[in-house]
User: Fold this.
Amino acid sequence: AKFPAPDRRGWLPHHTTPFHLLDPRETDSDVAGRILATYYEAEWSAVEAAFRARLETHGFDLETLATFDEALTAHRHGLYRATPRTLFPDIERKARDVLDENGMATQSGLRDLRRAVDALGLENFTRSGVVSPKLYRMFARHLYSTIRTSERLAEVAADPVPNRHAALHGLVVYASCQASLNALIMAEYAHLSILAVARTLEDRRDDTELSLQS
Assistant:
């Protein structure tokens, strides 16, 4: 599926995106943005149900599912600031479980994890159920980037996709419905990426054990 104009306005593609309502010939990204904003507000009950149903199929652990439950509930009640502040720590918890178990370092910027995800190649573009290089780029370059300059802070503040450093250190307040939804979408992508890395590392261990036995 191709994600049209709203991608340029910070709306992330997802399996809940109403692609059928979006005209790929529309050149005004504000038009698509208004359509999406209206849809997610009016249809949130159905969107949330679809989000939850798909989460149950991913093989996420109980702590991650409980965290998503709280974040989705917060979003439903308009507690948008709570969503990224709830989701980011659990991403790091799960990354630590996978990386520490495999002798890899964990940092607040998850550099080792991002390098491991980068090595997975083209599957990074389809992991979420939609074809989207944008989700991978946001994970690799934006979600966990550290803010060191005023220029970078201005860029992050203008982007409705939450940045971990900005959210948890109070540099940017993410209080919109769009930012909350984007946090949910990126958290799902991040956890799927962690599982993909875990499977790769497990396969590598199995191959090593087989070679030692032969």
In short: Residues 1-8 have pLDDT under 50 and may be disordered.
